[in-house]
Amino acid sequence: MGADDRSTLVAGTAEVVPADGLERKLELGRPLRVKLGLDPGAAMVTLGWAVVLRKLRQFQDLGHQAVLIVGDFTARVGDPSGRSDTRPRQSKQVVQEHADRLLDQFWLVLERERTEVRYNSEWLEPMDMEAILGLTSSYTVARMLERDDFADRYEQGRPISIMEFLYPLFQGKDSVAVEADVELGGHDQTFNLLVGRDLQRSAGLEPQVALTMPLLVGTDGVKKMSQSLGNYIGIAEPPDAMFGKLSRVPDELIAEYRRLTLDFFRDPEEADRVAKGLADGSLDPWTEKRRLAREVVDLYHGEGAGERAEAEFDRVHKQGEAPDEIPSGEIPPGLVVDGRVYLPRLLAELGLAESASRARGLVEQGGVRLDGEQHVELDAPVERLRGSVLQVGRRRFVRLG
Fold first, then answer.
1. Residue 249 in contact with residue 219, Cβ under 8 Å?
2. Domain holding 191: CATH number?
């Protein structure tokens, strides 16, 4: 592993800790164990998650071992990173349903055969009180309050639960369990990744290198991309839906979207060229936004998919027609209660609405149609839904199986 490999692996990163750590790890002359932990708190891999997943793929392509941690236990605790309040807890059943749906999406980026998949419930769920006390004794409240989000909430008098203090310790325990050489994460995960270094050191292991990636801002242009905020684009969404969402990205984010979703993996100078052209007026924002959308759709749906999605987008939006091909969707068994389905949650699960609360508003406002007719029944019979076409707004369609 030479200097060229290091240059490739640090390209586009936000931070590497310690600064020379990756170089020293590469000098070991063996494949590194590169860990990425993702909590299945929602059911879709977003373009935001894909930024760090594609960095993991770069490590794979250079012969290193990708270790993907599915945080089925930590998702039930809730990551406090960037939060101004306590995250609502999710049930074990819901988290598992999300995990099952996410796995196939990971393989749109990673090589399945070369990925070691681990669930952190394997080592966290069996921990008894003695083990938890041992883990908590390794960190102080003062150290926890060094986190900006915890410090802000403490100063403002906002509650911080003891459970939230456990989250970075549990994530650090993951690094001990899989003996990670490198851990990847978004830049908001820096504190958690550094806790992993400390816990590895306490366990007699060589501390991992923490490598973080910039955060992708959501389609609202304000906050980081998040399914809970509804400002996301899923990599497994239908091409038409992806193209439509990308077309709504604010003009000032076009170059950054290029950089993080496409160019730092293949041609970093292209994003700089686009940024310069948009700034001096030599490039048209709408033209560049459509090009971005075509290329991202091609990346996840195959060459030519972007052009087809663009043509469909124009046909539906300019002419107001229904799409020729309507994607299929299944009604998750867990949503069926006494033969009925709570329609807002179904719309959210299918990606037709950003959240169940937003979906309820759409139903009540007449923005949801079932086989072309406005639907106002919140609890819909399963037999009425199966085989029908759900439509949200003018361009989101799913045929229910």
1. yes
2. 3.40.50.620
Contact 84, 152 (CB under 8 A): yes
Which position has the token pair 């995990």? 99
Residue 363 lies in a domain: yes
Structural domains in the chain (count) = 3
Given 319, 349, 373, the domain boundary residue is: 319
* pLDDT given for residue 118 in this prediction: 96
DSSP state, 390? Answer: E
CA dist 200 and 195 (Å) reads 9
CA pair distance 243, 306, nearest whole angstrom: 7
Show the tokens assigned to 36: 């990425």
In whole angstroms, what is the distance from residue 382 CA to residue 60 CA? Answer: 44
Hey, how many other C-beta atoms are within 10 angstroms of the C-beta on 128? 8
CB distance 33 to 21 below 8 Å: no
The model's pLDDT over 316-333, given as tens digits with 9 standing for 90+, comes to: 766 555 566 678 888 888
What amino acid is encoded at 11 in this protein?
A: A
291's tokens: 């090009």
Question: How many Cβ atoms are within 10 Å of 355's Cβ, its own excluded?
Answer: 17
Burial of residue 368, with CB atoms counted within 10 A of its CB: 0-12 exposed, 13-18 middle, 19 or more buried: buried
Q: Which domain holds residue 11?
A: 3-213
What would the mean pLDDT of 269-283 be, rounded to a whole number? 93
The verdict on 146 and 209 lying in the same domain is yes
Q: Are residues 337 and 291 in the same domain?
A: no
Q: Report residue 177 CA to chain centroid gap.
A: 23
The tens digit of pLDDT for each residue in 72-95 reads 999 888 776 655 555 566 788 888
Q: What is the pTM of this model?
A: 0.76
Whether residue 32 is found in the same domain as residue 151: yes
